[in-house]
TrEMBL record:
Organism of derivation: Acinetobacter parvus NIPH 1103
UniProt superkingdom: Bacteria
Protein name in the entry: Antitoxin
InterPro entries assigned to the protein according to its UniProt record, in alphabetical order: DUF6364 (IPR045944)
A Pfam family matched in the record: DUF6364
Length: 83
């Protein structure tokens, strides 16, 4: 179902968008719709992949990550913990 949406956008951006849309044989509305669909789908995908356990683990080794394999980082962390 189609619905109307009013946006306030800088005139220069609108002109560039119209030019781009014309070159790609699309409407500005279809460009905006595709963009909003893509970013909202990505946001939903990101939310689906997150759970409490993955939230806790995400970035666990970020400060120490220098390209090492995660198993090496984990082994180093365990070694430090038990020394």
């Amino acid at each position: 179902m189609q619905a109307k949406l009013t946006l306030s956008i800088d005139k220069n951006v609108i002109e560039r968008a119209k030019h781009y849309a014309q070159q790609h044989q699309q409407s500005v509305s279809s460009l905006v719709e595709a963009y909003l669909d893509r970013i909202s789908a990505q946001a939903n995908k990101d939310n689906e992949l997150r759970s409490p356990i993955t939230e806790h683990l995400t970035g666990m080794f970020a400060a120490q990550d220098n390209g090492q394999d995660y198993k090496e980082l984990l082994a180093d962390a365990r070694l430090e913990k038990h020394l």
